[in-house]
Structures are given as C-alpha cells and as structure tokens.
Amino acid sequence: MKIIESPREMQQTALELKRAGKTIGFVPTMGFLHEGHLSLIEAARSQCDVLVVSIFVNPAQFGPNEDLDAYPRDFERDESLCVEEGVDILFYPEGEGMYASDASCWVDETRLSVGLCGGSRPGHFRGVCTVVAKLFNLVQPDRAVFGEKDAQQLRVIERMVRDLNFPVKIIRGPIVREPDGLAMSSRNRYLNAEQRRQALCLKQALDLAESLVAEGDRSVESIRQQMRVLIGTVSGAEIDYIEFVDDVTMAPVEVIESETLVALAVKIGATRLIDNMVLNP
C-alpha cells in the first residue's frame, strides 16, 4: 500500500492511473476506522482496479464549539486496517495542504442541506461539499462509497454530483451496527459504560417509529411525540432533532404516505450521536 500526503502527488498519481485505463474506487473518511468504514472499503474493493482511501479530519465542517481538536485519531491503527483490507493508496493530507490560507471558493448545496444537521450545524454541509469536491478532483474516482448512517450527507453528495456533473458513481453503504443495535461511529468512543447503554435509545426510538407505521399510524406528530417520550426516559439524553422528511426531496412531511426518512440527533452527555431509518408504509 502506498501512502500519499501531498494533494499534488495524489492528483498526479490519479491522472496517471486514469491514462493507463485503470478504474479508481474511493472511500473518503475522517479516520479512526471501524467496521462501518471497513464495510464501505469492502464494497469499493470489488468495483475498481485501484482502491483509494482518504483520511482527513476536515476543519471546514466543524463549527467553532465542536470537537475538531478532540476528534479521535489513530493513524497507525488505520494504516494497518487499510493494509488488511487491500487498500492500494492511502491519501493522508495535512490541513495546510488541502486549504490555502486565503481560500475563498466554497461549494454550497442549498436545498437538501437546510434542515436536520444542516439546521443545527450551520456551515457544516458547505464544508462537507467543498472537501468532497476537492477530494474528487484530487483522487479522480470512478466510484465513491458513502455510508447511509450519514443519511443527509449521502443525499447532499448525490445532489452535488448530479448538479455539478462530477463523473463519479455514488454507491450507498448500509448502516453497520453493534450487536445491540447502536450504529457504529467514531464518536462512540467518547461514551462511558453508562452512556453507551443510554445511547441505545436512538435505535429504540427508530424501531418504535417503524412498529407504529407497521400498525397503521401515519401521523408524524403522533410518532414523533412517542419517540420523544421514549428518549425522555433516558437520563442525560438531550434531543437535538427528530425529523421526518421525504426520502428523495428531504422536504418535511406531516403524514407518512411514501418512503420517509426519519432521522434524529441526540446528545448523550457531551456526545452528539445521529441515526436514521427509512420508513416504508
């Protein structure tokens, strides 16, 4: 496996591979890899000649009071996992190389990114779209895999690719969960044993929504309120949002009549966790 730190070298390498007729698969990450990331890498591995994984904790998508400095990092472990998974190139740029000191151009999606995490984290998706666009220009992928756990991010990236004509096929990777149902996340390591148990309320609330829909309840307000009650029984759980949106347009819905994405963000202690599910009536 080759490790590349220079954005210029990454782009030159990618262009040489393209000229040689190679297809490039790409999995962008912020590192501290877990089984969820590895499932994305596995999905990409079978669909390309050369597999590139990037590790870059993108400062542009963190707000001023968020956990940029504390975000978990373990490059040696990540490197070992990438070798085991058959990654060909590990792109590991430094922040100074990715953003000019006087950078003034950004990529901003203005519809799908408005609510959910976009509402509670202003500027987050501008940072996400910008760094993904930059990574696409540097890595030149034919296919890129994004996880369904970050449901809004996935749909925003798909829209960006469509609207800006990036020649990249986006592949969706299913959510990977712990045996007890907790969605895998690098931020799970922030949780102590009690908080880890409390964090199960996210999946339990989603399961409750699914069962209510299966029983015939179509009222978003009714289902949301019952999810709030369930999460409210967990000491220390603070709801950021519980939102129901059309799975394609991301527009809020009041009645579940077609495929509906229910997404929630909940703080357990100081840790903000997200999860989601598509409800199909």
UniProtKB/TrEMBL annotation:
<feature type="binding site">
    <location>
        <position position="61"/>
    </location>
    <ligand>
        <name>(R)-pantoate</name>
    </ligand>
</feature>
<feature type="binding site">
    <location>
        <position position="176"/>
    </location>
    <ligand>
        <name>ATP</name>
    </ligand>
</feature>
<dbReference type="GO" id="GO:0016874">
    <property type="term" value="F:ligase activity"/>
</dbReference>
<feature type="active site" description="Proton donor">
    <location>
        <position position="37"/>
    </location>
</feature>
<feature type="binding site">
    <location>
        <begin position="184"/>
        <end position="187"/>
    </location>
    <ligand>
        <name>ATP</name>
    </ligand>
</feature>
<dbReference type="InterPro" id="IPR004821">
    <property type="entry name" value="Cyt_trans-like"/>
</dbReference>
<feature type="binding site">
    <location>
        <position position="153"/>
    </location>
    <ligand>
        <name>(R)-pantoate</name>
    </ligand>
</feature>
<protein>
    <recommendedName>
        <fullName>Pantothenate synthetase</fullName>
        <ecNumber>6.3.2.1</ecNumber>
    </recommendedName>
</protein>
<comment type="subunit">
    <text>Homodimer.</text>
</comment>
<dbReference type="InterPro" id="IPR003721">
    <property type="entry name" value="Pantoate_ligase"/>
</dbReference>
<keyword id="KW-0566">Pantothenate biosynthesis</keyword>
<comment type="function">
    <text>Catalyzes the condensation of pantoate with beta-alanine in an ATP-dependent reaction via a pantoyl-adenylate intermediate.</text>
</comment>
<dbReference type="InterPro" id="IPR042176">
    <property type="entry name" value="Pantoate_ligase_C"/>
</dbReference>
<keyword id="KW-0547">Nucleotide-binding</keyword>
<keyword id="KW-0963">Cytoplasm</keyword>
<feature type="binding site">
    <location>
        <position position="61"/>
    </location>
    <ligand>
        <name>beta-alanine</name>
    </ligand>
</feature>
<dbReference type="InterPro" id="IPR014729">
    <property type="entry name" value="Rossmann-like_a/b/a_fold"/>
</dbReference>
<feature type="binding site">
    <location>
        <begin position="147"/>
        <end position="150"/>
    </location>
    <ligand>
        <name>ATP</name>
    </ligand>
</feature>
<keyword id="KW-0067">ATP-binding</keyword>
<feature type="binding site">
    <location>
        <begin position="30"/>
        <end position="37"/>
    </location>
    <ligand>
        <name>ATP</name>
    </ligand>
</feature>
<keyword id="KW-0436">Ligase</keyword>
<comment type="similarity">
    <text>Belongs to the pantothenate synthetase family.</text>
</comment>
<comment type="pathway">
    <text>Cofactor biosynthesis; (R)-pantothenate biosynthesis; (R)-pantothenate from (R)-pantoate and beta-alanine: step 1/1.</text>
</comment>
<dbReference type="Pfam" id="PF02569">
    <property type="entry name" value="Pantoate_ligase"/>
</dbReference>
